[in-house]
Amino acid sequence: EAGVAQSPRYKIIEKRQSVAFWCNPISGHATLYWYQQILGQGPKLLIQFQNNGVVDDSQLPKDRFSAERLKGVDSTLKIQPAKLEDSAVYLCASSLGSEAFFGQGTRLTVV
Amino acid sequence: GQQLNQSPQSMFIQEGEDVSMNCTSSSIFNTWLWYKQDPGEGPVLLIALYKAGELTSNGRLTAQFGITRKDSFLNISASIPSDVGIYFCALAGNQFYFGTGTSLTVIP
Hints:
The structure holds 2 protein chains of 2 kinds.
Chain A lengths: L4 E3 L2 E4 L5 E6 L6 E7 L6 E7 L2 E4 L8 E4 L6 E5 L8 E8 L4 E3 L3 E5 L1
Parallel strand pairs in A: 2-11
Antiparallel strand pairs in A: 1-3, 3-8, 4-5, 4-9, 5-6, 7-8, 9-10, 9-11
Chain B lengths: L3 E4 L2 E5 L4 E7 L6 E6 L6 E6 L5 E4 L2 E5 L5 E6 L8 E8 L3 E3 L3 E6 L1
Parallel strand pairs in B: 2-11
Antiparallel strand pairs in B: 1-3, 3-8, 4-5, 4-9, 6-7, 7-8, 9-10, 9-11
């Protein structure tokens, strides 16, 4: 069974630029999550989708972050404009029940 | 939000030693999860616990779901160099809540 796929693996951008991350969850998993993980910390939820609807985006900085999950499968997370403090690993996860499975993450560096 | 306290924050052990780490939560949940994260990778699920008092093993790893349903521990027996990484506990509710992680270093 294929796992959660994310791309790109690494991205370096200048502040005020925009960036987008892509995620393909495990086939059949209705719930998709985007997490932000700052170095030395645990993952922090940004947004949760159930199929193509948003369940929880209370922690998403909506002035600069946006996410969508068209057709309830793939998802994209966008940051525009990026700030230095957005440097982190962005993890996508999917679940069918009470276990979440993660992709390898995208390491974003904002300079 | 949900408070998850994980300890210790870091551990340095000799190869072959046993390791123990634990998590406590401020609320009762029905599922405890333990993940390991290698550098540059996403967290990988090690063990899932669903019942209070449940003790589950996965090779050299053993985890228990506390009777109070507010705590869990993870033990690693006879550590080896590839055990190096960061271990996270997590709770499954409406979303997944993660602890702050335990960084494990195994000295050959």
